[in-house]
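Minutes, structural biology subgroup

Action item carried over from last meeting: produce the structure token record for YveK family protein (Siminovitchia sediminis). EB confirmed the sequence was re-checked against the source entry. Recorded below for completeness.
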Amino acid sequence: MEETISLRELMETIRKRLNLIVLITLAAVLVSGIVSYFVITPIYQSSTQLLVNQAKSDQPIVNPGEIQTNLQLINTYNVIIKSPAILEQVNEDLKLGMTVGQLNEKITVQSEKDSQVVNVTVQDPDPNQAAEIANKVAAVFQQEIVDIMNVDNVSILAEAEAGENPTPVKPQPLLNIAIAFVVGLMAGAGVAFLLEYLDNTVKTEEDVEKILELPVLGAIATFEEQDMQRMSRAERSPKLRGETVGSKQ
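Output recorded by EB:
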């Protein structure tokens, strides 16, 4: 026997379990807001830009082959910037008290497409420290790359600055709350349909028809105790009024 679920049954299930769905959604939004605003530590970001060329040449004409070689070496420079040779010096100069691995996790190095510009981005709970680390990484790289790869033309295009009112890059509370709302709504609907699927009790005559595949000829109404008492009082009231009138006559 195949069971089909109509749109009306779906809407009826949602209506019946609406309180549960709303409760789960509100709980997800509340937890997300508390975690985003009070639990997760804000992380700030600061970036600096470097321009890396090969050794300076006295030729005024730009050599296309030299530019292509520089572009191919950009990935090598990206690896060198995050190497222990650079990060250990940065850690020592700033007295960060971190391991090279911990400092490496804070730094992201990316190169602009088809250019010799390298972006060094640092994320840290302290915005001022993030700017200091980014600038120090650029300065140490500019100094050490001369001995490492005989490159003496590294220019710092833009220094990292913390700013007066820095804004954390993560967490993003509004985005987290929006995601939690959607996830909570889906979870609530899923739980509602699961409970409805697991509920195999017979409650209405429609359930009897669906299970037995037989037409229902009649149904016995059920009454609450309060309804029975109310009906009993209503039946006795005319009799009492009739007895009272008879006694007066």
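Discussion: The CA atoms of residues 29 and 180 lie 5 Å apart.
Next step: EB to file the record with the rest of the batch.
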